[in-house]
Specification:
It comes from Henriciella algicola. By secondary structure, this protein is α/β, with parallel strands linked by helices. The chain has 2 domains: 31-282 and 542-564, Rossmann fold, CATH 3.40.50; 293-511, Rossmann fold. 45% of the residues lie in helices and 11% in strands.
């Protein structure tokens, strides 16, 4: 009966008759207090000061390519940084899309129906609310807003449509044309899939992402040419349309800065030149392994690593249950305590599905199948496959799930393998505590387990690759050699643990930058601003805000300057 009711409800919500209600609900959501910063209120009492700052701003020309009016976090952070940079003399413009054939805003779980998106795109259901939200949040600042339609015409749209039709049969993250690569990643994200299939709907929607990538690329290049920007700031730096601004900046020798909300509350990650997903893999050792941690830093790190088990200090966490005892975990998973156990910690299949040259495998599912097959031939060892809880907790919800793929590959799961579904609320750290070693693709968990002394085999593009404390596989053969080698899962040496701890501290404490203007204690949406955000954005008030602005304006490193004074603002405890 429940399933029937759900089917009826879905059918109603996807009907044409429901469309006005759908649009009304979305518009109402965008007007809910706290969803966006209200700069009319935040600037109250500072109007003359702000007007003078705008009038006198004649420094570096910055385009903040927010692009998406319905991206709540991007609009909150980008308008804050627009104010902060203007207060430091920069000439700041904000860039917004005002209608694309597809974009990062839409997802299969939010779409009214896939046929409707394939036929009409986001226009009828999303674009109106998106553009009106962008106007409301940005207009009180009085800064120049550059819209894609300012530099695009009907001829462009026709050429973009032809581009989409030409490449809609492409099925790989690899391509010489970055527009195709970003469009494919965007389509995978829309569907929550690791690969696109051959259905007509998937081809039509991918074609829309290709067209959108063409238009976004053209808009980015024309805006850069028209206004001669010194710096482009783009959240994520991948997908559609932000990926095209990143590519256009690199191709025109315009300095690029990308950013992303950090896992830690009240903190952001800013990165020069590329998305941090890729850039941090290649960080030189001199950046993070220069000195031993102080006693205070060691205590901070230990406290934070302990908090990761519950997510107490994080904005983003996937732990739904506190860790349990070894005995309880062995019993819950029906494991034999007399046998060595190993943890396969998976990622969400579709997440950041771009090509990385250093991966031993091109696809996480292939790696997981190989791993289960290897353990099936080694019954003296046990494997726990922890499917990522984000497959069901993230938006978009995963369509391609690792547990489904493994069950299809192994109708009879090997007796020494336990498959933990993403719905299972067992704490991942409970599994880790009984494991002799871990196998990862690119999860951040690899950093933490290494810092605790656990040997971690790296098969994907994880940040611990090449850092000297992971066990790196470079191809399928070297991965199997690592599994076979008796020394692979020896505990890390003291020097390896020290290096791992320095790297974890570097990432979570230096690269994740706290800002006083961000209300880290806020619930939903993720990022909200303090009532005195305008004052906190001014030069000299928050050294970390100064550091981020100096990074954007002058290329300085993006690192935390003042952790202690920001901690209370971010809602953290030690």
């Amino acid at each position: 009966m429940g399933s029937l009711f759900s089917d009826i409800r879905t059918a109603v919500r996807q009907s044409e008759a429901y469309a006005p209600v759908r649009r009304w609900r979305l518009e109402r959501l965008t007007r809910r207090p706290g969803v966006y910063p209200d700069w009319r209120v935040l600037l109250s009492g500072h109007e003359k000061d702000w007007a003078a700052a705008r009038e006198s701003a004649d420094g570096k020309r910055i385009l903040i390519a927010t692009s998406l009016g319905l991206h709540f976090t991007a609009n909150t952070v980008d308008t804050l940084m627009a104010a902060a940079l203007t207060l430091r003399g920069a000439k700041v413009d904000i860039g917004y899309c005002d209608g694309l054939p597809a974009c990062q805003v839409i997802e299969h779980t939010l779409a009214p129906s896939l046929p409707r998106i394939a036929k009409e795109g986001p226009g009828p259901d999303f674009c109106g609310a998106c553009t009106s939200a962008a106007d409301r949040v940005s207009s009180p600042l009085g800064l120049n807003v550059r819209k894609f339609s300012d530099v695009l015409n009907d001829s462009d749209r026709a050429e973009a449509k032809a581009f989409g039709e030409r490449w809609q049969g492409h099925r790989s993250t690899e391509h010489d044309d970055p527009r195709v690569m970003h469009a494919y990643a965007g389509a995978l994200r829309f569907f929550g899939k690791g690969d696109l299939g051959d259905s007509g709907l998937e081809a039509q929607i991918f074609s829309r992402y290709l067209s959108a990538a063409w238009l976004s690329d053209a808009a980015a290049r024309r805006l850069i040419d028209a206004y001669q920007y010194d710096v482009i700031v783009a959240h994520h730096g991948i997908y559609v349309p932000q990926g095209q601004f990143a590519e256009a900046a690199r191709d025109t020798d315009t300095r690029l800065v990308t950013w992303h909300p950090a896992y830690r509350r009240g903190r952001l990650i800013y990165q020069h030149g590329d998305t941090y997903h890729r850039a941090m893999i290649d960080e030189p050792e001199s950046v993070w392994n220069q000195r031993a941690l102080s006693a205070a830093e060691t205590a901070e790190l230990d406290a934070y690593l302990a908090s990761r088990e519950t997510g107490a200090q994080d904005w983003i966490t996937f732990q739904r249950r506190d860790p349990e005892s070894l005995q309880s975990t062995y019993a819950a998973l029906d494991l034999d305590p007399a046998k060595d156990t190993y943890l396969l910690a998976a990622n969400v299949v579709w997440d950041a599905r771009l090509n990385y040259a250093q991966s031993a495998y091109g696809h996480m599912i292939e790696w997981a199948i190989d791993t289960v097959s290897w353990f099936a031939k080694h019954p003296d060892r046990q494997l726990v496959v922890r499917c990522h809880p984000g497959e069901v907790m993230n938006s978009p919800r995963a369509s391609d799930r690792l547990d489904d793929a493994l069950r299809a590959a192994f109708p009879q799961m090997p007796a020494n393998v336990r498959l933990v579904s993403p719905e299972n609320d067992i704490n991942t750290y409970s599994i880790a505590q009984l494991s002799k070693g871990a196998l990862i693709f690119n999860t951040k968990l690899g950093m933490e387990l290494s810092a605790r002394g656990m040997p971690v085999v790296v098969a994907g593009d994880a940040w611990i690759r090449g850092k000297g404390f992971g066990r790196d596989a470079y191809d399928r053969e070297s991965y199997f050699r690592l599994l076979e080698s008796p020394g692979t899962f020896d505990p890390l040496t003291e020097s390896e643990i020290e290096a791992a701890r320095r790297y974890v501290y570097h990432f979570y404490f230096r690269r994740c930058i706290p800002l006083k203007a961000l209300d880290g204690s806020a619930g939903w949406p993720l990022t909200q601003l303090h009532a005195d955000a305008y004052r906190l954005a001014k030069p000299g008030v928050d050294r970390n805000m100064d550091a981020i602005c100096e990074g954007i304006l002058a290329g300085a490193p993006f690192e935390t300057i003042d952790d202690e004074n920001a901690r209370d603002r971010a809602g953290e405890t030690t």
